[in-house]
Prior knowledge:
Layout: H1 5-16, E1 21-22, H2 26-34, E2 39-45, H3 49-65, E3 72-77, H4 82-90, E4 101-106, E5 109-114, H5 116-119, H6 124-138
Amino acid sequence: MPYPEELVAPMREDLTIAGFEELTTPEEVNAAFDNKEGTTLVVVNSVCGCAAAMARPGVKMSLAASDKRPDRLLTVFAGQDLEATEEARKHMFPYPPSSPSIALYKDGKLVHFIERHHIEGRPAQMIAQNLVAAYDEYCGATVAQ
Length: 145
């Protein structure tokens, strides 16, 4: 059973305000993953404390701190948009379901993945540094200053 929308609305907004496109249906997920050109960052959002204190802040810090960034920013919400999250996780194979988690794709191929156990107990700055290194390696476009 999904979490109440009133509970998750501020957690959704935390990423959408930062420019993430929210995918709420399997059809939206498949349409987004059909576009394989360039780089895509996908955040599996969650209500847990490590999403609030580490994952979402770390992702936002990484985008602000990097000269390079993914072409597309997408998110699904685990525990709320159940079918969309399940569909997105099919694209995260071989990694098991993990909430929160962060996936980076280049030309449709999964090239970097941060599982929950790499998020829990680590400061948001560490998550950001990890992602900035991945952007530097896989993202081609430089952000205009």
